[in-house]
Amino acid sequence: MSQGSSPSTTLSARPLGETLVCDTTAIRYFTLIDQIEVLSRVMNGTIRVPREVFDPDDDSRHFSEDLLSEIGQTELYWARKRSPEAGGIWSKFKALRHRTDIEVVDLEPREMTISAEVTGRRYLRRFGKSGRLGKGEGSVIALAEIRGWVPVMDDRAGRQVLEARSPGRTCLTTDSLLRQAAFAQIISSPRAAELYQDMVAAGYRGPPTLWLVEPN
Fold first, then answer.
1. Ramachandran angles phi, psi of 95, nearest 5°
2. What's the rounded Cα separation, in Å, for the pair 44 and 185?
3. Residues 51 and 104 sit within 8 Å (Cβ to Cβ)
4. What is the DSSP letter of 69?
5. CA separation (Å) from 76 to 8, 29, 48, 63, 79?
6. What is each CA distance from 61 to 65, 99, 136, in whole angstroms?
7. Separation CA 73–CA 127 (nearest Å)
8. Among 3, 47, 65, CA closest to 206
9. Per-residue pLDDT in tens (0 to 9) along the chain, 216 residues
């Protein structure tokens, strides 16, 4: 599904005291470009994620792939891939297990019910979409709805579901976090634009430049 900023995505500096909860895309691309520290700083020193997004106890030797977290599946993908750069990329994701600034959040029963609902095969048909949301999007939507946290979620269909369930709720994206990092002077604006192009080169789907917002 396509990605990009929606009308509820912020384009200006936001208070740094908000509680953010991150889906998979931001962690994946900040990791790929070796800038996970920037993500940590813009999230107020805590990269808060549902266990469905990242579980440091993932073990691909004993778990089937569908039981791994989404980052665990990414790690497994690079472990299996045979290319000159694969080993280095795999090690970047494996290193996330040793970070002390990642806070893994477990869903409570009500949140699990919401996540199961929005990730059901039939749910997206209400929005004229095919396919289904991933477990990361479902978990972030549930945490935003129940706990009032600000979600970081790039998937456009996921943001449409969030807007329908919680009208007017702010939703940030990977590119808006880079803009926030520049607004908060964590990095310079030229550096933010440079890192964004690195993400695009790594496969991130968004507007052609950091300062151009893709229409919903």
1. -65, -20
2. 13
3. yes
4. -
5. 34, 16, 22, 11, 5
6. 10, 22, 22
7. 28
8. 3
9. 334 443 334 444 454 568 999 999 999 999 999 999 999 999 999 999 999 999 999 887 666 787 899 999 998 888 888 888 888 999 999 999 999 999 999 999 999 999 999 999 888 888 887 888 999 999 999 999 999 999 999 999 999 999 999 998 999 999 999 999 999 999 999 999 999 999 999 999 988 899 876 655
Three-state DSSP at 115 gives helix
Given a contact cutoff of 8 angstroms between Cβ atoms, the answer to whether 123 and 117 are in contact is yes
> Which residues on adjacent β-strands are paired with residue 20?
150
For residues 3 and 6, give the distance between their C-alpha atoms in angstroms, rounded to a whole number. Answer: 9
Longest CA span, the chain: 46
